[in-house]
Design brief:
The protein is an alpha/beta fold. It has 2 domains: 28-334, ABC transporter transmembrane region fold (Up-down Bundle); 356-591, P-loop containing nucleotide triphosphate hydrolases (Rossmann fold, 3-Layer(aba) Sandwich), CATH 3.40.50.300. The chain contains 19 helices and 10 strands. Strands 6-7-8-3-9-10 form a 6-stranded mixed β-sheet, with helices on both faces. Strands 2-1-4-5 form a 4-stranded antiparallel β-sheet, covered by helices on one side. Helix 1 (20-32) crosses helix 3 (73-122) and helix 6 packs antiparallel against helix 9. It is elongated, with a radius of gyration of 37 Å. Residues 356-590 form the ABC transporter domain. This is ABC transporter ATP-binding protein. Residues 40-322 form the ABC transmembrane type-1 domain. Residues 591-613 are annotated as: Disordered.
């Protein structure tokens, strides 16, 4: 665990921003604007659907007002063919628009998810210290998936309904403005009702997304710690905790359902009130001879066309608000800025010597809790430098600053005379080989893990690195050798094997600066000795930083620094520090206690009788 590092905590949700739905549509349009062919096909299909739906009431009105009174039997065939042809064309254009919008939605989600993942990769380590893995997974998968519904089905429905609504209103005003005004009187009430429920529905859906993240978090934590759970027999305890989170998710979903169950019937009620008013007023006008029967039937059909968009929008609102809640959670990530950033034109490291200098460096993970204060430190090129000290002294923090996982709040760190802040992160970290006490192995083969830092490594290079790390023998003992699967986090390997494999990975990278952070802590004495012999040869002419609790691993270091509470209290070689009789000697004697010598006892002290010799 990092020295003084913060515990993982929940990311605080951002407050909903005014106009976030509009900004959501703008961002989604940015991801689809390059797909003009699909967009044009979708728009043409949507317009065609609206026009075809507009034509069916006209056929109905003509049939009632002209064909039936005139008894034109022959024309009924053409009416049937017209309706059948309209239905076929409606199906065709609906199919085209659905496929086009689904393709647009999937591609938009593909780009947004990749953008979100790339942005996550660019954030500093401190961000991941504060965030939970399950929550981030939920945002990249579930939340982005919600936006796909918006772009495909939601956006298509909104565009189609908007066009249909405008066209029908214009036509109805032209046919009978009085009837149309009666209908439109109900719409302000619908708008107010929609506005009242929309913010509540969005909050409800955001609680759903957050509860999904809680479930995902718990699932990720427990599945990755399944051995710990079984070792301590906490299956029932974890099941109860999971049930609590699942219940919260169920409650959030039920709350959203209740809101929808109230909102949608209210909209339907308002629609039926409008229909009743039109039917009563239209029937009176028909009785008075102002309208024909066909006209009132067509008008009622157009009323349905007018009300259907409103009714569908009330259902689409759920998708929009659900997408808006997901969008807010996605934007929280996209608007997060990394605390560690490159300058506009960073310097690329060349001909690296590995001379690292800390000058007056102060650093704290938390404000007011310094880990290093006014810290001066130097790694000499081609030399082995070791750091020792108690847990929490700041040893691992030094490696985090050298790799620029964090930036100090004060002071400067240079590599070969160049401030780290002026160097590109890829060239800086590309010159480093790191073996940490927290072993990270990927689910794959031994070969996959070894070449992770050097993709083009040859078989000969891979084997040489494995031999140097004393790993070749145990690797070849597996049936598939270097192509053997090691399982998630290397569960098929022992602790010592994992450590040796991570050392081999660093050796294969062939860096100029090697950082060993408790690299031999999991090895038995025989393996440790073999690796120390290999490292002595491999670290020659390279800058090396070795952090160790086990002092046996650093006795050959060129320089040893003793760290205590973020300050260097002693420095020197192994022998000189022992002679100094300070903190280093105390640590050494704790690990290698000296057996007290038995005092010499004379025969007289033993009470022997000289005459019996």
């Amino acid at each position: 665990m990092m020295d003084g590092s913060p515990r993982r905590m929940r990311m605080e949700p951002a407050h909903p921003k005014p106009g976030s739905i509009w900004s959501m549509y703008k961002r989604m349009f940015f991801h689809i604007k390059g797909q003009w062919g699909l967009i044009i096909a979708a728009v043409i299909s949507i317009l065609a659907v609206s026009l075809l739906e507009f034509g069916i009431p006209q056929i109905t009105q003509y049939t009632i007002d002209h064909l039936i009174p005139g008894k034109h039997y022959y024309a009924l065939v053409w009416v049937a063919l017209g309706i059948l042809g309209t239905a076929i064309l409606l199906g065709l254009f609906n199919y085209i628009s659905s496929i086009a919008m689904a393709s647009i939605g999937q591609r938009a989600v593909f780009e947004l998810r990749n953008q979100l993942y790339r942005h996550l990769q660019s954030l500093d380590i401190g961000f991941f210290d504060r965030s939970r893995t399950g929550d981030l997974m939920s945002r990249v998968t579930s939340d982005v998936g919600m936006l796909q519904q918006l772009v495909s089905s939601g956006m298509m429905s909104i565009v189609t309904d908007l066009f249909t609504f405008v066209a029908v209103v214009i036509y109805m005003l032209w046919v009978d403005w009085q009837l149309t005004v009666i209908i439109l009187i109900t719409f302000p009430l619908m708008i107010l009702t929609t506005r009242f429920f929309s913010t509540r529905i969005r909050r409800s859906f955001k609680r759903i997304q957050e509860s999904v993240a809680e479930v995902t978090n718990h699932l990720q934590d427990t599945l990755s710690s399944i051995r710990l759970m079984k070792a301590f027999s906490t299956e029932d305890y974890e099941s109860e905790r999971f049930a609590v989170r699942s219940q919260a998710n169920m409650g959030a979903n039920l709350a959203a359902v209740k809101l929808r169950s109230v909102y949608e019937p209210i909209i339907d009620l308002i629609n039926f009130v409008g229909m009743a008013a039109v039917l009563i007023y239209g029937a009176k006008q028909t009785m008075d001879g102002a309208l024909t029967v066909g006209s009132i039937v067509a008008f009622l059909a157009y009323l349905r066309l007018l009300q259907n968009p409103v009714r569908r929008f009330s259902r689409t609102l759920n998708t929009v608000q659900q997408s808006a809640a997901a969008y807010e959670r996605i934007v929280e990530i996209l608007e997060t800025k990394s605390a560690v950033v490159e300058i506009e034109h960073p310097r690329e490291l060349e001909n690296v010597q590995g001379h690292v200098v800390f000058k007056d460096v102060s650093f704290a993970y938390h404000t007011g809790t310094p880990v290093l204060e006014h810290f001066d430190f130097e790694l000499l090129p081609g030399k082995i430098t070791a750091i020792v000290g108690s847990s929490g002294a700041g040893k691992s923090t030094i490696t985090h600053l050298i790799t620029r996982f964090y930036d100090p709040q004060q002071g400067s760190i240079t590599m070969d005379g160049h401030p780290l802040t002026e160097l590109s992160l890829s060239s800086l970290r590309g010159q480093m080989g790191i073996v940490s006490q927290d072993i990270v192995l990927l689910n794959g083969t031994i070969r996959d893990n070894m070449v992770y830092g050097k993709r083009g490594a040859t078989d000969a290079e891979i084997e040489a690195a494995a031999r140097a790390a004393n790993a070749h023998d145990f690797i070849t003992a597996f049936p598939q050798g270097y192509d053997s699967q090691i399982g998630e986090r290397g569960v098929k390997l022992s602790g010592g094997q994992k450590q040796r494999l991570s050392i081999a990975r660093a050796i294969l990278k062939d860096p100029q600066l090697i950082i060993l952070d408790e690299a031999t802590s999991s090895l038995d004495s025989e393996s440790e000795k073999a690796i120390q012999d290999a490292l002595e040869h491999l670290l020659k002419n390279r800058t090396s930083l070795v952090i160790a609790h086990r002092l046996s691993t650093i006795q050959r270091a060129d320089r040893i620094y003793v760290l205590d509470k973020g300050k260097i209290i002693e420095e020197g070689t192994h022998q000189s520090l022992l002679e100094h009789e300070g903190r280093y000697k105390q640590l050494y004697e704790l690990q290698f206690p000296q057996k007290p010598q038995e005092p010499q006892v004379t025969s007289g002290e033993r009470g022997e009788n000289p005459s019996r010799r």
